[in-house]
Write a structure and sequence with these properties.
This is Ubiquitin carboxyl-terminal hydrolase 25-like. The chain is of the alpha+beta class. It is built from 34 helices and 16 strands. Helices cover 51% and strands 10% of the residues.
Length: 1017
């Protein structure tokens, strides 16, 4: 849609629309009073909501051009303000784009009053339109309209869903050993924000040794600052060479591609694209740009070639990645033939089951539509490959534009491909034999369709909505006949040999409780049984014959090209590029085959792991949740030795080898420094634990906090000379004051030096940090420090005991008002700890894919945290955005888990899936709908869309459809009334501050490393 969410019509169009209401004497055509652009919007409102044009027009006027408000008027009349609906107006002001002479609402008032009158007008009009329910519109259709309403709003320009969150940017683990490369494991790529697409494509190319060698040893010219295109290309190639060198020889687990990504994005924007790589179109654009740069880079080295053909053959990138196809046919009675170069060959997924079917459908002879529809000549064309590259890339088109919803949608259907494919049938040199076999396949498929229809007439027999297998119908008929005992035949006949018709048994006021014949003679039963059994046998034989013929035809089709003549050009699968998510965005990774150890590996940003082919199939073929392949990379079997020849770090160019060595030295230095710090910390901790002197402070709960309570017992606060006793109460008070003051200064210094975005949370380590950061009153902080002195003083020395007793006295004699404030802050901190405990428990469950267990904890954490929020002191609560994000992720993941159960072949699990949604997902909807975060509201609409798409699916059986229709209304009820609240989480186990701190640090490393969530890259 061309309008943004906050669309405001121009002055002229607004005045012209207002004139419709002001001119009370002249009926007007609504469509004549709006601009062409506005009229298109109103037409789309009609299509989406099913409303008449005049209703959509009135809603658009009342909403002042705001599409979202107009949709609300049309689909939810109950949302109109009470002041509007409760006014006692008796006449509709706006009806059929005419105004009444008697009842006119004045729209010439001030703006506020005019807006109110407009709302009154539209309210009355909509009340009238909704008072008589439109015939033919079911409740189900109205529900779908609401879903489409949200979809329409969501997909307006400027409202594209965010595909990353600030805290999801990858942060390096503090411990460098966690960043160290394991022996024999390939190096990954750091995700620097929406760059998983870069990692997937580059890794698949890097693991082609011949390409690696080309990049590492290519010669690049100096950068010409006056040529932006050349600057981007050369700069990118320089960075790509560095990345490849590090991928070969680095001792790090992953490398940083930031510079290369930034150059690439700048280049795409320079070419006029506003793309932010993330959907398949953007990734295809990136791949195309990359191949273009590579071609240009090596074209410079081969420019001495005289002809175009020689240039192509001499350019190693062209030989490696680019092929050539011929398009020939007849157009408007004239023959034509064109040669085309291709890099990544597009393959359609919609309407095809596998790669060969799609290639056949796109390359075989087919009709084309001429420019002049009056042409009587037939126009058609067919494609042939004249030259295939060493590395053949297919881009699977898994996205389409839905005209009904005006947005792109991803195709999740299953699409199969083999690890080895033979391309002989698509080569021009084999076109004669291929054409013959295609005709044979065409005839076989026609026969296959006839047999399939014939078999279907047996297995889906009947009229109306219900169809059954004929064998089942005959079996049921036989059971019906046999359900009543037969009556013996009577041989008593009169002289005229008239048969005696048995009388039916008399009814005793009650019919049979089960279906059965009321009476049947023995001969009738025997005759009917014989017929039914004979027919059942005949049907069974017919079905067997048809099924056998079907298998024979399918076998003939499958082996049509399975002979030596058509298996001379094999291509082996090298890499599969996978996308998880929807059309608007998602996460990318790559599966790459290593011929050396014959293993598949998954390259998922920083993580590289070995996988089985079964996992590759499960997450590549489609039909499994939202994961499917979007790119395939095959290597020519006859050139495998050339393409997959191994390369070692010893063969790196000198300056690249120096780059790798320097980076490894720096990393080794970082490892040594870390180990030294850890050893020093361990030695200090051991020395501290072994020190049994009187002045050693024993701090059990906070090892970083050292109070000098016991040391001060032996040293005068004035002259720092040892004393045997404290002479007066004033001395003790002075000492306590000084200790509190020093500790407070120390806490403030730590708070100032601690980075706000670090992996630690000081507030969890000690309540004093919490109070300082929250700006608590000074006496509250001092009281907390005194309490800690009492708890930490373990010595039995007389002076220490006197200090401890005095501190206890001060703690037990607070001012009543101060005591209330103290208790309030203690309660706040306890709630803060509970929020963190719930959040961490939920996050741990979420990371372990235990979504059902995780959601109650995350919801409870968000609710508790809301009680702590204070705009003036944000440190009193956890980061609300982080809590909302984790709650939302769990919400979406749980829904996907429920959908997987609903789609499972085992029908016993479909109720489990719907129960999960009813018990956990639905109770969350009211709070998400009213959330201040737009992403929460988008998540609700995303879930609704996922479930409502099943209504139009032909894959659902009757049981699933029935359950779904009972369940869907719950998703549309946005009120909390009638909804059961989400179950509270189990009682949390007691936890110490140290435990909370350790869990929090690990959780933040997990979140920042983007390991727990891969739905957004």
């Amino acid at each position: 849609m061309a309008h943004s969410k906050n669309y405001q019509p121009g002055t002229e169009s607004h005045d012209s629309r207002t004139a419709v209401l002001q001119d009370k004497d002249k009926p007007m055509d609504c469509s004549d009073q709006v601009t062409t652009e506005d009229n298109q919007v109103i037409q789309q409102l009609c299509e989406v909501t099913g409303a008449a044009y005049d209703q959509a027009f009135n809603a658009f006027i009342a909403a002042n051009g705001n599409v979202e408000n107009a949709l609300t008027f049309l689909t939810n009349p109950e949302h109109i303000t009470d002041g509007t609906s409760q006014k006692g107006m008796q006449t509709s002001v706006v009806k059929n784009c005419q105004t009444s002479k008697d009842d006119v609402i004045d729209l010439t008032k001030d703006k506020d009053e005019r807006d109110e009158d407009l709302e009154k007008a539209i309210a009355l009009s909509l009340q009238e339109s909704h008072s008589s329910a439109p015939q033919g519109i079911t409740a189900e259709e109205q529900d779908i309209s609401r879903v489409l309403e949200a979809s329409l709003i969501e997909n307006k320009p400027g409202l594209k869903r965010k595909r990353g969150d600030p805290w999801m940017t990858f942060v390096d683990p503090v411990n460098p050993h966690e960043r160290k490369r394991s022996d024999g494991t390939p190096v990954g790529f750091k995700n620097v924000g929406n760059t998983c697409w870069f990692s997937a494509v580059i890794q698949s190319l890097f693991h082609l040794p011949v390409f690696r060698k080309l990049v590492l040893h290519c010669t690049l010219p100096d950068i010409n600052q006056n040529n932006s295109k050349e600057t981007h290309r050369i700069s990118f190639m320089q960075e790509l060479r560095k990345l490849f060198a590090l991928l070969i020889g680095s001792k790090r687990k992953y490398v940083d591609p930031t510079k290369a990504v930034e150059i690439l994005k700048e280049a795409l924007q320079y070419n006029g694209s506003e793309s932010n790589p993330g959907n398949q179109q953007d990734v295809s654009e990136f791949t195309h740009k990359l191949l273009e740069w590579l071609e240009d880079t090596f074209k410079v080295e081969t420019c001495a070639a005289s002809s175009k053909q020689e240039k192509s053959s001499n350019n190693p990138v062209m030989e490696l990645f680019f092929g050539q196809s011929k398009v020939e046919g007849v157009y408007e009675g004239k023959n034509f033939s064109n040669l085309e170069m291709f890099g990544a060959y597009p393959v359609q997924v919609q309407g095809y089951n596998n790669l060969h079917d799609s290639l056949e459908g796109g390359m075989a002879r087919g009709e084309i539509e001429p420019a002049n529809n009056e042409q009587t000549h037939k126009s058609d064309q067919e494609h042939w490959f004249t030259r295939l590259p060493a590395v053949l890339k297919f881009m699977l088109s898994r996205f389409l534009f839905n005209q009904n919803t005006s947005r792109a949608e991803k195709i999740h259907e299953r699409f199969c491909f083999d690890t080895t494919i033979y391309m002989d049938r698509y080569l021009e040199k084999n076109k004669d034999i291929t054409r013959i076999r295609r005709e044979e396949v065409k005839k076989l498929k026609e026969r296959h369709q006839l047999l399939r229809n014939s078999l279907d007439s047996y297995t889906n027999y009947g009229t109306g909505a219900r169809h059954s297998h004929i064998q089942d119908i005959l079996d049921s008929s036989l059971q019906f006949v046999q359900s009543t005992d037969p009556i013996n035949d009577s041989t008593c006949c009169d002289v005229e040999m008239k048969p005696v018709i048995p009388e039916p048994p008399r009814s005793h006021g009650m019919t049979s409780l089960r279906p059965a014949p009321r009476y049947i003679s023995l001969s009738e039963r025997q005759s009917i049984e014989a017929c039914l059994k004979r027919w059942r046998t005949e049907v069974e034989q017919d079905v067997q014959v048809i099924s056998k013929s079907l298998k024979e035809v399918e076998e003939s089709i499958s082996v049509m090209y399975d002979d030596e003549e058509m298996k001379k050009v094999p291509y082996r699968l090298h890499a599969v590029l996978v996308h998880e998510g929807q059309a608007s965005g998602g996460h990318y990774w790559a599966y790459i085959y290593n011929p050396t150890d014959k293993q598949w590996r998954k390259f998922n940003d920083i993580t590289v792991s070995q996988v089985t082919w079964e996992e590759v199939e499960r997450e590549s073929l489609g039909g499994y949740r939202h994961v499917s392949a979007y790119g395939l990379m095959y290597v020519d079997g006859s050139r495998e030795d050339q393409v997959l020849a191994t390369e070692t770090p010893d063969h790196l160019p000198q300056y690249l080898q120096r780059l790798v060595d320097e980076d490894n030295i720096n990393f080794e230095k970082e490892l040594v420094e870390w180990d030294e710090k850890q050893a020093a910390a361990a030695a200090a901790a051991k020395a501290s634990s072994d020190d049994k002197s009187k002045v050693a402070a024993t701090v059990s709960s906070r090892p970083d906090l050292v109070l000098d309570a016991e040391a001060s017992c032996a040293v005068s606060p004035h002259d720092h000379t040892p004393i045997t006793h404290l002479s007066s109460l004033q001395d003790i008070d002075n000492l306590l004051d000084k200790m509190c003051s020093n500790e407070k200064l120390r806490l403030e210094k730590i708070a100032d030096e601690h980075p706000p975005d670090g992996l630690r949370d000081l507030r969890l380590e000690y309540i004093g940090h919490y109070l300082i950061l929250c700006g608590a009153p000074q006496y509250v902080v001092e009281w907390t420090i005194l309490k800690q002195i009492v708890d930490d003083t373990k010595s039995r020395d007389d002076s220490c005991l006197r200090i401890k007793r005095r501190a206890i006295e001060l703690l037990n004699k607070p001012d009543p008002e101060k005591l209330e404030e103290l208790n309030k802050w203690k309660e706040k901190y306890q709630v803060f700890e509970r929020v963190n405990s719930c959040f961490l428990t939920g996050l741990e469950h979420l990371h372990n894919n235990k979504y059902k267990e995780a959601l109650p904890y995350l919801v409870h954490a968000y609710t508790l945290n809301h009680k702590l929020q204070d705009a003036a002191h944000p440190s009193q609560s956890m980061d609300e955005a982080l809590l909302a994000f984790c709650r939302r992720q769990c919400f979406l993941e749980l829904n996907e888990h429920a959908i997987a159960l609903f789609e499972a072949q085992d029908k016993t699990t479909l109720c489990d899936g719907l129960d999960l949604v009813s018990e956990l997902v639905v109770p969350c909807i009211p709070s998400l709908i009213t959330s201040p975060h737009a992403e929460d509201r988008e998540a609700v609409e995303q879930i609704r869309n996922r479930w409502f798409t099943y209504l139009g699916s032909s894959m659902l059986d009757e049981k699933r459809r029935e359950k779904l229709q009972d369940f869907l209304p719950k998703l549309l009820d946005v009120t909390s009334e009638g909804h059961q609240e989400i179950r509270p989480p189990p009682v949390l186990r007691p936890t110490s501050s140290r435990d909370l701190c350790e869990r929090f640090t690990k959780a933040m490393e997990l979140v920042h490393a983007n390991m727990a969530f891969s739905a957004k890259a």
